[in-house]
Amino acid sequence: MAMILRVFAVTLFFLPLFQIFPLFSKETGGNRLDVITYEGIINPVASEFILQSIKEAEEQNSEALIIQLDTPGGLDSSMRMIVKRILSAEIPVVVYVSPSGARAASAGVFILQAAHVAVMATGTNVGAAHPVSIGGGEMTPEMSKKAENDAAAYIRSIAEKRGRNADWVQKAVRESVSISEKEALSLKVVDLVSSDLKELAAVLDGKTAALEKGNKTLRTKNASFHFKTMSQRFKLLNAIIDPNVAYILMLLGVYGILFELYNPGLILPGIVGGICIILAFYAFQTLPINYAGLLLIILGVILFLTELTVTSYGLLTVGGAISLLLGSLLLYRTGSSNLSVSWSMILSMTGATLLFFLVIIGKAVGALKNPVVTGKESLVNKKGVARTDLKPKGTVFIQGELWDAVSEEPVSASEEVVVVEVERMVLKVKKYQ
């Protein structure tokens, strides 16, 4: 009992210290720099990854979040989600265009301007922010002008909020101009140029970031870096929604399901095809799909199938190839080369589709037309010899076996007969003429 009382007393004595530890940990966590890297198209996966990283950095009370960015641009909707989250972040967000050779083009310019501190590495460039894909598809001159004016006003408001060169960023939108990191620094498009993260941490020290809740002075001189990479889930989703991958998944799904239909019972092609189709439609949810292009691809597949059963002297095949090519070109409603199927992919998949339907499925259909060579059905039209009189029942000898048989006309023993039909285990025969 005395031992229990001692333990209880010690616990009461140290309890206030235990309550202080979380506060102490939160305060000392400020000398921490979170770092993430994103390279590729700005899409819903990029948006989710960056938004999640900002939230986690806030929860860790990090000194700042550094986003190492290299992007050719991307979707307007995803870009705007990232921009809004950066503008409302509770900690400074540093967008760092790196490594050397990287770029912040199109949507990347907006994200760079939204940063509390905009930085570029040596040998990088920024610009070319004309809204070629905003709204998706081919735009009329009036719609194009509206999209351009909207993008120009949006990026100007961001640049003015951050105290950067609003005139130049508007020019990047309207004229698609692009500049190097040295020009960007001299024109006050970015705040700093840094060769690596260690140097960046040093030059950030003492800088003031304007947050929504007030200004914050960065203390990063001896900060520790905490690197966060994309989870396997993000990497998989990012790969799936690549325009070329989504295109391949759709065609593979069609191939698998059709092969299963032509060869019932194989199971595996149907399972693989179904999975590919579902993944393709997941990708299509996040991409600017042109349904006219999708329908043209489906029409092309139907024409290839029809060629296998209808004699068209190659016209259906030509029509299918043209339909598939046009559908592939129109599949994504965007003027950006980053969100379209590459020519090499279109030509290779069209060739593979022609080969698939004209060779593989052609052989499968041909096999279905071949006469049956196994089982009782293979006895139809086969010749044999009556072993007994058929009046109308008896036995016949066919292909080395005795069978019960029946005939509508009398047949004498030793006469030749031919099988007309097989009903259960009885052969219907007639005299061989």
Structural class: alpha/beta
Any idea what the CATH superfamily of the largest domain is called? Answer: 2-enoyl-CoA Hydratase, Chain A, domain 1
Count of alpha/pi helices: 14
**CATH architecture tag of the largest domain:** Alpha-Beta Complex
| Whole-number total of structural domains | 3
Give the total of beta strands.
16
Please bin the fraction of helical residues: 40-55%
How do the SSEs run, as a string of H and E?
A: HEHEHEEHEEHHEHEHEEEHHHHHHEEEEE
Beta-strand content bin: 15-25%
Strand neighbour order, sheet with most strands: 8-5-3-2-1-11
Shape: elongated
At the first level of CATH, what is the class of the largest domain? Alpha Beta
Cα gyration radius (Å):
36 Å
Main pleated-sheet profile = 6 strands, parallel
Name the poorly predicted regions: 1-30, 133-137
Distance between the termini: 114 Å
Q: Give the overall average pLDDT.
A: 84
Classify the fold: give the CATH topology of the largest domain.
2-enoyl-CoA Hydratase, Chain A, domain 1
